[in-house]
């Protein structure tokens, strides 16, 4: 794409009209695809990008800008492939273990829309960040429970258990309390601290590596829109897709919180023994110093997390070096001193029972419940300032999602602890096992599954009723009549009709997702509170030490505990197995990638250990490309997005300079912009935000089907040329066999929108509606207009450069 187009005689500027050149920038959706499939050509070439995300064209279109006559009346297709950002190499399968962190990060962006409530908005974000902090502490505490309590404290301190596991022999004490140097409880705890410390270090490393690869991609520099066209989305702010500073701050705080959790698990037992044993005064003093340092470190972490440290109104390139270095290093130094303190010789110290895990996990559960309830109150207050019936759960979608993140963290914690305890203990009762609270939490899993079964049955019945209603609508859509006197091709095929109606009914169940999430979140909160109350009130596992007074109740409690324990462990094993399978199987990895496509669109604003935000790479890629191409050619551009690609397309359009945005048409199909994102993320994709996007781009058209469980209408008002939504496309294209469709047409649902003839027609209409008076390509050396961005890479994207890039990549 040269900056100037030359004629064949004098090398002067070609006076061709600017609207003769058109580009269709295709953005695929969830699950990913190949450039060959997107461009419908087996011969493609990469013109820009790398192995992670890149732009592709057909080989014959590589130098299309030099041959405008060959593309008169049709656009040049160009595919942006970003699927490797989420489902690339096998290591991304390990992100399954970060699922609770991803879910709580989603809750941060689900804040309801509000008017004139800045303090409440900040309070909501603060509460969600604190919930994320408790999840980090919970995960590290689970590792401490397994390594320190079950292995080093209980099994290594019990002769029968240590004899069963020879690898613990050097840590075990004899029947009379004698043993080797490592047999003292404090030294065993100090050595076992390697496991949770390694876990914390791994989380820090993964976050730092993805931080360098994702958050370091700078978006296109621009100023915030200053027009009077009404409210817009925050996704258009210059610093929205550049969360480098915030993620660095949160990573330092969460890493320090993990290391402080390990210090607490190692040091509190030693300090408690020193206070009660009447040992040396020096050790007692060191114990109090340790407690004070631990409290000071925890307070510092809370303060750092409380400060958001993110500026969306400008591109914030600063990094808080002091916090980034001092906080984790200080926590690591405290851990090292704590290990030395615990390893001090205490000959009379013997391990018995459990470490105080019930207090730890019970406190975490209470704090999480209180934070979720406070977030719900704040979210409800925000919703009342600007109520919108389409908002999920009337503004409570974020707190309900945060509750699910806590539940996932609890399932993973209980699953690991229960399975490790069963493995160490074998068939006997040689060790006390995991904390009572984890067993009580396992016992509430069966009631929760019963609730899920009831909800599933409700959805099945509702789908059946909707299917019956859709049968008549299908006949009307295809202009058929259910008349027994009709014969041959005019008589409806009832099996075909029911398949189409059933597909439509099942697709409509997506709109019931808020009800499901709300019900599961409320039941989870209630059952979790009952588990905490039962554990603290009885101090024993459900059904244990039964006296036979209430045999039915006691039997049910024992059965629920046993079944729940196995279900929790099975769930965790399935999670790990899925990750391992995805590591080896590309198709499974792509399936898991669909989950990340939806869940990791948003920047890491609540939890730094969540999987990285791919949009912080994809959105700058698209904006740089659009700004560079329109400035270099002055041509027309259709931004064509399918499914999640339509969300990326909208976010990229918001990031463009207004002058460039007015030269872009938006074509979306199978789009969840309103159906999912508008309901769950009303601040950024609500009616006002989507209406502003409609005003700011030159034109916008949206295609959807009633058989699509993901895509749906945008729902913006408008008439004629200003109407965004095309009437729902028929799916299948033909009811029976026709001359054009001699074989039965498939029900496409969410896929292959380009197969519908309407797609090409709507794309042509968008190209025709784009303003023909778009500016000509700017001569070299001419200054930019005030506020217009200069895409530094545009000059390097000439046809010659593209050709060489394509040849090197091919």
UniProtKB/TrEMBL annotation:
| Keyword entries, A-Z | Membrane, Transmembrane, Transmembrane helix
Organism listed in the record:
Streptomyces xanthii
Q: Which SUPFAM superfamilies match?
A: alpha/beta-Hydrolases
* Transmembrane portions of the chain: 93-111, 123-143, 189-206, 252-273, 285-306, 326-344, 364-383, 395-417, 437-461, 516-539, 559-577
Q: Region Disordered: which residues?
A: 1-20, 769-810
**Matching InterPro entries, A to Z?**
AB_hydrolase_fold (IPR029058)
Protein known as:
Integral membrane protein
**Could you tell me where the Basic and acidic residues compositional bias lies?**
787-799
């Amino acid at each position: 794409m040269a900056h100037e187009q030359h004629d064949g005689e004098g090398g002067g500027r070609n006076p061709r009209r600017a609207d003769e050149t058109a580009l269709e920038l295709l953005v695929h959706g969830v699950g990913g695809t190949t450039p060959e499939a997107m461009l419908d050509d087996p011969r493609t070439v990469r013109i820009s990008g790398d192995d992670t995300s890149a732009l592709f064209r057909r080989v014959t279109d590589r130098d299309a800008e030099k041959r405008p006559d060959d593309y008169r009346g049709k656009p040049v297709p160009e595919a942006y492939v970003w699927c490797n950002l989420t489902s690339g190499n096998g290591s991304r399968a390990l992100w399954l273990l970060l699922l609770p962190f991803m879910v709580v990060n989603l809750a941060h962006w689900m804040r309801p829309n509000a008017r004139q409530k800045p303090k409440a908005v900040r309070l909501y974000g603060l509460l969600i960040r604190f919930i994320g902090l408790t999840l980090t502490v919970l995960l590290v505490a689970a590792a401490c429970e397994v390594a320190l309590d079950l292995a080093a404290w209980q099994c290594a301190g019990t002769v029968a258990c240590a004899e069963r596991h020879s690898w613990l022999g050097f840590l075990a004490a004899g029947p009379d309390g004698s043993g080797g140097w490592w047999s003292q409880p404090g030294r065993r705890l100090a050595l076992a601290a390697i496991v949770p410390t390694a876990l914390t270090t791994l989380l820090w490393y993964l976050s730092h590596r993805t931080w360098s690869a994702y958050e370091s991609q700078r978006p296109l520099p621009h100023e915030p829109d200053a027009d009077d066209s009404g409210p817009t989305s925050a996704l258009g702010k210059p610093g929205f897709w550049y969360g480098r500073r915030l993620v660095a701050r949160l990573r330092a705080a969460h890493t320090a919180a993990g290391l402080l959790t390990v210090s607490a698990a190692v040091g509190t037992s030693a300090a408690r023994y020193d206070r009660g044993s009447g040992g040396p005064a020096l050790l007692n003093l060191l114990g109090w110093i340790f407690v004070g340092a631990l409290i000071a470190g925890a307070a510092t972490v809370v303060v750092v997390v409380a400060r958001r440290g993110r500026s969306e109104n400008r591109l914030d390139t600063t990094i808080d070096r002091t916090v980034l270095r001092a906080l984790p290093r200080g926590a690591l130094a405290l851990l090292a001193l704590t290990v030395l303190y615990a390893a001090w010789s205490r000959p009379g110290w013997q391990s018995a029972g459990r470490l105080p895990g019930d207090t730890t996990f019970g406190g975490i559960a209470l704090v999480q419940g209180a934070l979720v309830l406070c977030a719900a109150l704040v979210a409800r207050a925000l919703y009342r300032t600007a109520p919108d019936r389409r908002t999920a759960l009337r503004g409570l979608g974020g707190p309900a999602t945060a509750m699910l993140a806590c539940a996932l963290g609890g399932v993973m914690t209980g699953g690991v602890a229960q399975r490790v305890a069963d493995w160490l203990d074998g068939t006997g009762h040689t060790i006390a096992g995991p904390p009572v609270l984890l067993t009580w939490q396992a016992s509430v899993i069966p009631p929760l599954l019963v609730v899920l079964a009831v909800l599933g049955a409700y959805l099945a019945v509702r789908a059946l009723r909707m299917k019956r209603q859709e049968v008549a609508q299908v006949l009307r859509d295809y202009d058929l009549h259910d008349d027994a006197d009709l014969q041959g091709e005019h008589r409806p095929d009832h099996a075909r009709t029911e398949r189409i109606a059933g597909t439509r009914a099942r697709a409509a169940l997506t709109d019931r997702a808020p009800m499901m999430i709300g019900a599961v979140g409320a039941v989870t909160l209630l059952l979790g509170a009952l588990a905490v109350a039962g554990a603290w009130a009885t101090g024993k596992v459900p059904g244990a030490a039964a006296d036979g007074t209430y045999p039915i109740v006691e039997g049910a409690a024992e059965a629920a505990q046993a079944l729940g324990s196995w279900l929790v462990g099975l769930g965790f094993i399935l999670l790990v197995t899925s990750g391992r399978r995805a590591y080896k199987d590309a198709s499974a990895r792509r399936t898991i990638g669909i989950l990340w496509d939806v869940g990791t669109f948003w920047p890491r604003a609540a939890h730094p250990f969540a999987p990285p935000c791919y949009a912080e790479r994809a959105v700058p890629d698209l904006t740089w490309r659009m700004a560079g191409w329109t400035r270099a050619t002055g041509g027309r551009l259709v931004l064509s997005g399918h499914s999640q690609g339509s969300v990326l397309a909208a976010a990229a359009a918001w990031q463009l300079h207004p002058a460039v945005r007015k030269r872009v048409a938006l074509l979306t199909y199978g789009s969840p912009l309103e159906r999912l994102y508008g309901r769950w993320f009303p601040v950024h994709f609500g009616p006002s935000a989507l209406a502003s996007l409609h005003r700011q781009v030159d034109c916008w058209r949206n295609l959807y089907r009633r058989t699509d469980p993901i895509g749906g209408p945008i729902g913006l008002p408008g008439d004629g040329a200003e109407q965004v939504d095309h009437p729902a496309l028929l799916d299948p294209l033909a009811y029976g066999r026709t001359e054009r469709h001699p074989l039965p047409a498939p029900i496409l649902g969410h896929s292959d929108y380009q197969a519908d003839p309407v797609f090409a027609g709507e794309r042509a209409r968008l190209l025709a509606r784009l303003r023909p008076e778009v500016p000509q390509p700017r001569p070299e050396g001419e200054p930019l207009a005030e506020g217009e961005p200069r895409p530094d890479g545009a000059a390097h994207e000439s046809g010659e450069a593209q050709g060489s890039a394509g040849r090197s990549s091919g």
